[in-house]
Amino acid sequence: MDHTQKSILGPRLFVIAALAVAAWAMVYxxxxxxxDEAGIxxxxxxxxxxxxxxxxxxxxxxxxxxxxxxxxxADPSTxxxxxxxxxxxxxxxxxxxxxxxxxxxxxxxxxxGRDDLHATIVLxxxxxxxxxxxxxxxxxxxxxxTEERVIRIPLAGRDxxxxxxxxxxxxxxxREDGTPAIYPSYYAxxxxxxxxxxxxxxxxxxxxxYDRIFHGVSHRWAYIALSGGRVPGSGAHxxxxxxxxxQLHPALLKPE
Length: 256
Ligand SMILES: [Zn+2]
What we know:
Layout: H1 3-27, E1 33-38, E2 47-48, E3 51-54, E4 57-58, E5 67-68, H2 91-96, E6 102-110, E7 114-123, H3 134-140, E8 144-155, E9 158-174, E10 180-193, E11 196-198, H4 201-215, E12 217-220, E13 222-229, H5 236-252
Parallel strand pairs: 1-12
Antiparallel strand pairs: 2-3, 3-6, 4-5, 6-7, 7-13, 8-9, 9-10, 10-11, 10-13
Helix pairs in contact: 1-4
Bound molecules: zinc ion.
Residues 59, 61, 64, 66, 79, 81-82, 84 line the site of zinc ion (ZN).
C-alpha cells in the first residue's frame, strides 16, 4: 500500500471506528447522564415580524380528527364533535411520541391571510426517541417528497447563516365533490441541541453520539418545523421560510 492510499484509508477507518463506538454507545447508555438542558425555549411568540400566531387544538380521537382554534369554542377543553379532551397534539403525534415529549405549535398568517404557515417545536423527553427523521413521518402521512435541499438564511448579529432543510411535497387528496386533486406543500426544519444547530438528521445523530462518548451527557434535542402550502413551480415559499425563520430564530434563544 502506498502512502497516498494509506492517508485516505486512515481517516475513513477512524470514521468507521467512531461510528461503531457511537452505535454501541447509543445502545448501551450505561454511564451517560441525561441532562435537562435544551438549546432553545419551548415557546412560540404571538408575533413574528408581521405574522400573527394563534394556538391550535386537536382531537386525539383518530375517527374524529377535529382541529380547532380556541376562539371558535365555547369550551376549549373538549371536542365539540365527539367529547374527547382536546390537546396540542394530533392523534398521530400522540400515538408516536413518548408522553414526556414537549410540543408547542402555532398557526401564523400575515395581514390579509398571506403566507400562512404552521410552526412547531418538538422537544425530546427523557428517552430521547421523540425526534425521528421527518422524511419518514411525511411519507407515512401520504406525502411524496419531490425535492429536498438545504437553504442558508442570513441572521442579524451572527456570521454563520441558519441552515434549514426544505422538502417540497405533493399529496393526493379528494375535493369535496370527490374528484382527485394534488395538494402541493412544504415542510422545513432544523434541529437544535445545547450549543448545536444543524439541518441534518445524520449530523444530529453524530453530535448526540459525540456528546455521549466524550462528554458523558445526553442533551434534550429539539426540532423546529415550518409547514404550509406552496405554488407548484415557484420558489416563493423559500423566501417565506427565510423571512419567518430569520425572525423566529432570535426569539427561541435561551436567555443567558
Ligand atoms: Zn373529536
